[in-house]
Amino acid sequence: MDSFNSPTTKPLYRGTQIVWYIIGFLEVLMGFRFILKLLGANPDAGFTNFIYAVTYPLVAPFLNVFRISRVEGSVFEWTTLLAMLVYFLVAWGIIKLFLMSKSVSTPEAAVKLEDQER
Question: Taking the model in full, what pTM does it have?
């Protein structure tokens, strides 16, 4: 059976799209957080407050990993960058797990195994 015509191909593709969409959305939110902190945005402003509140649960596990660098109202929040990296790597790992369940033919498997040995 050709792996491109497998009945699992479309659901796997959709699953990977969903994971990438979710991580992309979270990365954008955390990117806003990083930029707002870096530029010293007013935390009492509605948008800033919203972004900080929504992203706090995402960055909270990383808050004490690094010291916060402050320069005259600006904050370089290393922990947000760490959170972004960790969540990206988790999403990448989930995608790899999805792809491992994709059906492959014996010749495809043989080629992939040879490639891994190099």
Answer: 0.79
